[in-house]
Amino acid sequence: MAIAxxxxxxxxxxxxxxxxxxxxxxxxxxxxxxxxxxEDDDAGKLHRLVRLNxxxxxxxxxxxxxxxxxxxxxxxxxxxxxxxxxxxHSFNTWGNVKKYLSSDPMLRLQFCxxxxxxxxxxxxxxxxxxxxxxxxxxxxxxxxVREREIDAELRLVLTGMLSDMRNAxxxxxxxxxxxxxxxxxxxIGAVVIQRSAWQANGSAIPAKLRQALLxxxxxxxxxxxxxxxxxxxxxx
Length: 236
Known about the structure:
mainly alpha; globular
């Protein structure tokens, strides 16, 4: 899926993708889990659905602040669309809520997306190919963690870090760089919190995981030197 640089563009493309799902008997949660590239479990799908609702709030706030947009015309009726992806309706069937993504509000949202696309972007783009490269590094790191002989508690920490990093990349499709940054911060937090446990076991972060984490930091313009100061010997 192409990635729009502005929040409204991302929202339109995601809702349009959901609208194309034909199976009316699916749960709402399963529809958005598929569109938002969520893990198979409900917790992963709910994580993504919460992100989609944040994107909605962000987008509507942005549009309501556009003085040169005819808000009375183009925002009319858009609030009803949210019924199709609120947490409240997540266990309902898709056929009961899909109607809220009908042609008229979707056309209005598409116009708003095109309108915002003409504005200067404050969210520098990360190329799809770069995201896929980072995901590949994360998968290689997952294999490294599975095969390496390490303390069981530390393996659990590493698995959580990898999950945070994977979520960080996937959240870019929804919340852009902000969403990706939050996932990276979670991963960094896990390292800092568990630092004493790492040092007690004489362990270092596996090379592929370290490489993937630093690649994410590079895409987010996080100062790697300052990051190194926090990680200390863990990045050596």
